[in-house]
Design brief:
The protein has 69 residues and is α+β, with helices and mostly antiparallel strands. Helices cover 46% and strands 19% of the residues. The protein has one domain. A 3-stranded antiparallel β-sheet has the order 1-2-3, with helices on one face. It is globular.
């Protein structure tokens, strides 16, 4: 799923605009990246967590028992 699709879905679920949803998504992604760069793990409830990976890469670990919608 690409950013415009995610923003559209977020806007629909919250009753907000696509622009506001896209801004919120950008802030979320930036917070995740900032945390990982600082060596922190960032959890997304219901999905999994992002953590620093080998060679400065971003690693994602999906929560067990969760399926894609």
């Amino acid at each position: 799923m690409k950013k415009p699709e995610i923003a559209k879905k977020m806007a629909r679920q919250t009753g907000g605009t696509r622009g506001a949803a896209a801004d919120r998504l950008d802030r979320m992604v930036q917070e995740i990246l900032d945390g990982v760069r600082q060596g922190k793990e960032t959890r997304l409830p219901g999905l999994g967590c992002f953590r620093p990976g080998a060679g400065g890469r971003l690693a994602f670990r999906r929560e067990r028992g969760k399926r894609r919608a």
